[in-house]
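Quiz preparation item.
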């Protein structure tokens, strides 16, 4: 008989394992640590970006809710950003069946709203400049 035929069938030949798979080795892997650190850094930057993006909306919403509580109105919604950089965001509330246009502050030091009727106000509420009044 040849040499391969003399070996018993049940014996296993020993082959060196490349890397034993254990959970302890997985948690100590540099790839796992790098992935964990990268995920944490990306999450922090994404959270900071979202906070900065929605900051005007959050602060204006707090002011709108405060104004609505004091005025007995129901808050509706605020715009996302201060588009004209005047420190206020346009908001609206419902009071006695009428929509009240508001301008709410976007600074944490200026939480509150002011009523903004603008050009939609009745002539008696507008400031009379004298020269623009027709008689």
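Solution:
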């Amino acid at each position: 008989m040849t040499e391969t035929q003399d070996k018993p069938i049940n014996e296993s030949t020993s082959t060196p394992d490349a890397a034993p798979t254990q959970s302890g080795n997985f948690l100590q892997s540099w790839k796992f640590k790098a992935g964990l650190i990268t995920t944490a850094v990306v999450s922090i930057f994404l959270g900071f970006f979202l906070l900065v993006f929605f900051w005007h909306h959050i602060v204006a919403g707090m002011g709108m809710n405060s104004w609505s509580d004091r005025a007995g109105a129901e808050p509706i919604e605020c715009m996302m950003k201060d588009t004209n950089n005047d420190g206020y965001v346009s908001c609206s509330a419902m009071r006695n069946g009428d929509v009240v246009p508001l301008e709410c502050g976007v600074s944490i030091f200026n939480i509150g709203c002011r009523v903004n009727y603008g050009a939609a106000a009745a002539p008696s509420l507008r400031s009379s400049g004298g020269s623009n009044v027709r008689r």
